[in-house]
Amino acid sequence: QKEVEQNSGPLSVPEGAIASLNCTYSDRGSQSFFWYRQYSGKSPELIMSIYSNGDKEDGRFTAQLNKASQYVSLLIRDSQPSDSATYLCAVIGNYGGSQGNLIFGKGTKLSVKP
Amino acid sequence: GAGVSQSPRYKVAKRGQDVALRCDPISGHVSLFWYQQALGQGPEFLTYFQNEAQLDKSGLPSDRFFAERPEGSVSTLKIQRTQQEDSAVYLCASSRKGGVFVTEAFFGQGTRLTVV
Asked: Which of A46, A91, B32, B39 has its CA 20 to 30 A from that of A101?
């Protein structure tokens, strides 16, 4: 099992719809979880962080964490064409034998069609 | 500085040449991470530092790769005898805290290395 797994997509949604992005992770002791957005040719940009079970909302974005299922998701409401990008899930945990390691999934490519 | 700064932005190296990539993290940030990102892939972990200590270098692909952060601030990733498979974008990120308390990490613009 890969340490942080995401469906590579592409995920295509119509403008105005809800986009749902999912991520699973292998280290049950992981404490911190992040979603980054990366436009083509650009660096990853942090959009959400979540540390506790449940939902965290920020504008059109909602992050959901379920530590028992080792699952974290990102919902984007009222999707816009400008949301088209690759979304990266990142997890802090004991990966490679060292606490505090920040590991990324391979990313899900989202395409929002006008 | 206000953000993470990486230099150079672009580097073309001839196969066999040594290169050095620099990362200047956000002032006061404890943790510093290096990643390698191939086209269409997520960032692959290379190594990370907490202050000047290199806590994990398990992601470095070979002994040609070496990283240092001698004063706990600026870091340099050095690649010796570059090979074509080293061509990628090298990303640096820093975070205010360290260990299990690592919080949000912020990225620099990256260095695109092309080995010809």
From this structure: B39
**In B1-116, beta strands by DSSP E:** 5-7, 10-13, 19-24, 31-37, 44-50, 53-56, 65-68, 75-79, 88-95, 105-107, 111-115
CB-CB neighbors (< 8 A) of A107 in chain B: 41-42
Model pLDDT for residues B62-102, shown as the tens digit of each residue: 999 999 999 999 999 999 999 999 999 999 999 998 766 66
Considering only CB atoms, which chain B residues are within 8 Å of A45? Answer: 107
Identify the pLDDT of residue A98: 64
* CA–CA separation, A34 and A49 (whole Å): 4
Does the distance separating the beta carbons of B45 and A102 come in below 8 Å?
Answer: yes
Is the CB of A34 less than 8 angstroms away from the CB of B95?
Answer: no
**Residue pLDDT, tens place only, B8-24:** 999 999 999 999 999 99
User: Which DSSP state fits B99?
Assistant: G
